[in-house]
Amino acid sequence: MRIILLGAPGSGKGTVAEALRSAYGFPKVSTGDLLREAVREKTPLGLVAASQMGQGGLVDDATVLALLRERLSREDCLGGYVLDGYPRNLAQADSLDALGLPGPEIVFDLRVSDAVVVERLAGRRTCPNCEAIYHLANKPPRKAGVCDVCGTGLVQRADDTPEVIRERLKTYHAKTEPLIARYSAKASLHRIDGDGRAEAVIREVRRVLEALLGHPDGAGH
Length: 221
Ligand code: ADP
What we know:
Radius of gyration: 17 Å
Strand order of the largest sheet: 2-3-1-4-7
Helix content: 40-55%
Bound molecules: adenosine-5'-diphosphate
Order of helices and strands: EHEHHHEHEHEEHHEH
């Protein structure tokens, strides 16, 4: 089972991917997380990526594909995974097809309005160590400013500033949104209303997935 999450920045891809990981065990493969890890470790690739990410554009396709291939080749991806943040343009969708990966492909399109995106990203805080996601109003950590999972101090992502958020939305509409037509033509696309609360969005994704899998009580266990 290969699950692809499409949606604007702040549409909840990371939150849904984490929920699917914890419900069914599918690893969350996030190109944003992989890139931020490379940036933190100051690898040659990370140094190039940092400037591209900081401006709200896309990191070049070859760099992201190299990171993705390495991640998908690890053993935990053998039984399936959730892709969060890839593909993000038509060329990346072609590259993904060209990898010839086995298993059915299910695509969820998380629809949110731009106004909701801006509100969510402005209040988002993340853990720089384990990438757990919080929101000051909607999902505060138990102890202010500290990650519930690993105890690291939370940060505001460098690209969650108003100007960069506007650029990321522009990038999304110009480059990523055209993928919706491509995947609806392949008939594997499921449109989800992403404007509601996280629990409601997750419930809807799981309902669709379980109907497809034919396991009303859960796919994995
Ligand atoms: P969001 O979906 O909220 O924008 P991500 O964590 O998925 O956040 O991505 C952060 C940044 O990383 C993007 O703005 C982009 O610069 C870069 N990035 C992530 N995935 C890709 C990708 N598949 N191709 C190119 N750049 C990417």
